[in-house]
């Protein structure tokens, strides 16, 4: 893809239907559970992206037999029945935070020395809550003052009780939950303080259950897991709700009508809550067993705590530029540690457009003003590119730098955006 892409504004409201590719979060969780399972599993509807390929390559480096037909979205894995084949590996995990957190916990169940590293941004993202939790179970873990790279010298994951922070990422807990059935004795996991992105824990538990593992919840955020086998299965993966948010937002921004197939209020993914934000802002929703449609309407600013679906903060910020009144986003201090500083960097780019943005430690206030053309820096952050590209549907002269960074989770995003807007241009 070229080094920049200018978005072509639409001339009329968008009327379209789309099925986004499979969920990254579900694909990576299902791959890990299938890798630990007894027998051969097949995943259907899996996402083809840099993050999911990174996870697949890492599992292969750990000795898991894996065959992926990425064009068909099908992955077959021969599980290791809870015993990692490799006793030494160096895993290059690029910018995949999900892979890094999940695999750090996974290799702790093995026997041997494992090194995990990533790109320059990954080396700035905290891993201390997870490494400290593993150390309480007797695992020798070295990091760079709480940041990658990480070296795990594993001799099996002992049981016991682990308390860990939940205010930076829910992925630490998800990684430990999925690794726990391969521990040598029962493990009790509890969260200290608030937990961000809590719906992702429910997703993790659902995937574990689908692969035959039972988790007992003794309190709201305390989990007991006994050693037990994962069982192989065929597992269907629903479309990615974070990706869907861009198309629902396109309906809101253009006053159009966009249906996303395959996602309903019963989705395993918490990011479908983004639709409720749009409803509060003035859109209407139509839901049935096959999908969810957003119909745009006059938009009003809202105040919303997005702690539980923070991957859609940038998307809502784009919509807020076209609302009447101020939109306040709260509860998302943790997103400063994502692929970019999704508060500070986002505020900087919105101001380039002329928006009135007041940055707060845990969010921002966005007041619409007259918007102008701008070249948007994306910080190698796929969500910055996809969300701020939507502004160009209404504002001429919006150019997105490094549009290819969407390959992290959605390589075909700008092609799909062009497809759903073609009839309105």
3D architecture notes:
The protein folds into two domains: 4-20 and 238-424, Alpha-beta prism (UDP-n-acetylglucosamine1-carboxyvinyl-transferase, Chain); 24-226, Enolpyruvate transferase domain (UDP-n-acetylglucosamine1-carboxyvinyl-transferase, Chain, Alpha-beta prism), CATH 3.65.10.10. 28% of the residues lie in helices and 26% in strands. It has twelve helices and 25 strands. It has helices at 24-36, 50-61, 97-107, 128-135, 171-179, 199-210, 241-254, 274-281, 313-320, 344-352, 382-389, 413-421; strands at 4-6, 15-18, 37-38, 40-44, 65-69, 74-78, 88-92, 111-117, 140-142, 150-155, 160-165, 187-192, 216-219, 222-225, 230-231, 234-236, 257-261, 284-288, 291-295, 303-305, 327-330, 356-360, 363-367, 374-376, 398-401. The strands form seven sheets. Strands 2-17-19-18 form a four-stranded mixed sheet, with helices on one face. β5 and β6 (74-78) form a beta hairpin.
Structure summary:
It contains 12 helices and 25 strands.
CATH architectural designation of the largest domain: Alpha-beta prism
Number of distinct helices:
12
- The end-to-end span amounts to 22 Å
Measured on Cα atoms, how large is the radius of gyration? 21 Å
Largest sheet: 4 strands, mixed
Mean pLDDT: 97
CATH class of the largest domain: Alpha Beta
Annotated CATH topology of the largest domain? UDP-n-acetylglucosamine1-carboxyvinyl-transferase, Chain
Tertiary shape: globular
Strand order of the largest sheet: 2-17-19-18
Report the CATH superfamily of the largest domain: Enolpyruvate transferase domain
Helical/strand content category? alpha/beta
